């Protein structure tokens, strides 16, 4: 039986999602909990994709196969009781055998949180990027509109990115301001390595007046990481939701 | 010169506020930072009161004396650069020599945060009490009204409390519900050891129908800790604001 799980995690204390030797990662913690639940028989999980060190997930998705017949609604409790408290399984459901958490992704939503107050909010220090500067939100929104659509995002990913096809579609970029918090929401069919963090970094430079809105088309066409803005820190980023076709 | 500071801290990683041998406490961290700033000359701080292990502060107040003449607005930055990231000095101001952060307190506000969602919010796990149960909020509000006023709160503090005078005045108790979060706000002229946590625990038992609203006067009159409800965990509690007479 194949089980699809939605999981949230606080990325602060992890070296990212993917298993690495001798490092605390989300995948390792979940696989260890599942293996314990299966009396030592190793269980592998397959997620929608990785997240980097410090990056959070509100709704990451993974699947695994199991011979156990625990009711859907009990899986989260069974797993959460074996998991550390910075990983919480939100829900679980039995799915068809051909469902794949990575290959079947239709869309992904990432959010990036910024706080512009003069002083850091101590309770949010690991959950938003403290950026106490003036920003022209309207200019950022207009620049964001130029990024929506199907483009080659070579300029907006880590230079050494190994994926060959760097064409991705961004369906929407929303920028919402509430009090001194700004929330960026990106929905796309896929995102390259560090892409959201470089997009936000570039938009912030436009918001600060360090770049012009109309530089965006040239940055995309130039296909060169050096043309875009700084990579903002991982702790403001959330894998918010993964969408599948059903 | 006497300086009054407002400080927020995340209590999760502290053994409370007050200095204890070989323990990480808020007072110790701040005194060490101040001593560093004063080139090794020891500086003592005086806060409005203690907070327990795990308890947070949004607006704790303390004062200290200094021969340094740093402008008010620079003190927070000077101190924050020497403090760990779970303590943030919000503001500082020079005050009269006879101001005392503890003796001059007029009122204090504490808040207690509860989340009733089925699943823990992983990002709030150290900042609210997860309590996924039905609650009659109206009953809790009516019981709270019976606690407001000047009473002997012996039944609502730790049995071994050494303070002799257990009469305190609660000016207001507000209970606000938003989505699945409930925020209790208490304003009073002073609070005994664990008093807010026992008050909330008792109100929750009323909200769950385990106790009657009209038990409150009898609990107060009985002056016995055994009569009141459970002590809720410290990680949902915030010293929110300290009020002085000026």
What does this structure look like?
2 copies of one chain form a homodimer. In chain A, a hairpin with an 8-residue loop joins strand 2 (46-47) and strand 3 (56-65). In chain A, 20% of the residues lie in helices and 30% in strands. In chain A, helix 3 crosses helix 4 (195-207). Chain A is globular, with a radius of gyration of 19 Å. In chain A, strands 1, 2, 3, 4, 5, 6, 7, 8, 9 and 10 form a 10-stranded mixed sheet that branches. With 246 residues, chain A is of the alpha+beta class. Chain A starts with a strand and ends with a strand. The first copy, chain A, contains 5 helices and 10 strands. The model of chain A has no long low-confidence stretch (mean pLDDT 96). Chain A has helices at residues 26-37, 75-80, 137-147, 195-207, 216-222, and strands at 2-9, 46-47, 56-65, 87-95, 105-115, 129-130, 149-152, 167-178, 181-188, 237-244. Chain A folds into 2 domains: 2-95, Pseudouridine synthase I, catalytic domain, N-terminal subdomain (Alpha-Beta Plaits); 107-244, Pseudouridine synthase I, catalytic domain, C-terminal subdomain (Alpha-Beta Plaits, 2-Layer Sandwich), CATH 3.30.70.660. At the A-B interface, strand 4 of A face strand 4 of B.
Main traits of this protein?
5 helices; 2 domains; 10-stranded mixed beta sheet; Alpha-Beta Plaits; 246 residues; homodimer; alpha+beta
């Amino acid at each position: 039986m194949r089980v699809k799980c939605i999981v949230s995690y606080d990325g602060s204390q992890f070296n990212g999602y993917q298993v690495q030797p001798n490092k605390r990662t989300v995948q390792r913690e979940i696989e260890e909990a599942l293996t314990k639940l299966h009396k030592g028989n190793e269980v592998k999980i397959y997620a929608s994709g990785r997240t980097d060190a410090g990056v959070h997930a509100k709704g990451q998705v993974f699947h695994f196969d199991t011979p156990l017949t625990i009711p859907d609604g009990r899986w989260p409790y069974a797993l959460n009781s074996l998991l550390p408290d910075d990983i919480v399984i939100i829900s679980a459901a039995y799915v068809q055998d051909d469902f794949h958490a990575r290959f079947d992704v239709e869309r992904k939503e990432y959010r990036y949180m910024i706080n512009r107050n003069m002083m850091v909010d101590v309770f949010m220090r690991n959950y938003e990027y403290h950026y106490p500067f003036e920003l022209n939100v309207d200019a950022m929104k207009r620049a964001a509109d130029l990024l929506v659509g199907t483009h080659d995002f070579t300029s907006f990913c880590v230079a050494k990115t190994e994926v060959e096809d760097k064409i991705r579609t961004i369906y929407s970029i929303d920028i919402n301001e509430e009090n001194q918090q700004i929330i960026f929401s990106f929905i796309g069919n896929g995102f390259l390595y560090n892409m959201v963090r470089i997009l936000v970094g570039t938009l912030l430079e436009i918001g600060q007046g360090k770049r012009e809105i109309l530089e965006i088309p040239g940055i995309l066409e130039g296909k060169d990481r050096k043309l875009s803005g700084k990579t903002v820190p991982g702790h403001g980023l959330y894998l918010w939701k993964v969408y599948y076709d059903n």
